[in-house]
Amino acid sequence: MSKIIAVLTALILAAFAFPATAMGAEYYTVQPGDTLLGISSKIWGDWSNWQQIWYANQGQIANPNLIKAGQKLLIPENNANQWRFAQVGSSTWYGPGFEGKRTACGKIYDSGLLTAASNSLPCDTVARITNAVNGKSVVVTINDTGAFAHALDLSAAAFSEIASLATGVVTVSIELLR
User: Fold this and answer.
1) What CATH number is given to the structural domain containing 32?
2) Does the residue 160 lie in any domain?
3) The pTM is what?
4) What would the pLDDT profile of 40-69 be if each residue is shown by its tens digit?
């Protein structure tokens, strides 16, 4: 009896793990060079809803910058209002030792540019970062991955727009712009 209850519980939880659109949903086979932003554009004509695909495929996509050709992705019904990306987390800054080196997104790191590293946002995403304490904000472009201990690692220039570098770590809100 307890095995039946455990199986039923697992099935019920699995049903709520994905959006309701998973029933009868479409699938997309990732092509070489595809990105979540590009897939969103192909399917819906709007790249800014890429996070819907990411959320619907959380078990398959740990990092939105790392999708593989041949991978089958669940394509949920497009509901942009439900999936607006916003996050609150901690942020720090980085720069020493990285200046002039190539980032995971293929860019040359420059601590004087308004950029950030993120493990949850794809390369070239533009986001508004707002300091939760003082309300100051900065618009950055994601140009690297590797913010392992924080939601974001900002460039020195971006961090100094919202807090003193001496502060070290601040709580921020992240709003996807494009």
Assistant:
1) 3.10.350.10
2) yes
3) 0.56
4) 878 777 766 777 787 777 667 767 777 888
Whose tokens are 């990105």? That residue is 35
- DSSP string for 65-130: T---TT-EEEE----TTTT--EEEEEEEEE-TTTTTSBPTTSPBP-TTSSEEE-SSS-TT-EEEEE
Long-range contacts of 166-169 (CB under 8 A, 24+ apart): 168/92, 169/90, 169/91, 169/92
| One domain, residues 36 and 55 | yes
Beta-carbon contacts of residue 113 (< 8 Å; ≥ 6 apart): 141, 143, 155, 157, 158
The token duo for 33 is 């060079």
- Neighbour tally for 28: CB within 10 Å: 16
Phi-psi region of 100 (alpha: psi -120 to 50; beta: other; left: phi over 0): left
Location of structure tokens 């220039």: 157
Whole-number Å distance between alpha carbons of 34 and 144: 18
Beta carbons of 156 and 165 less than 8 angstroms apart: yes
Asked if the structure places residue 62 within a domain, the reply is yes
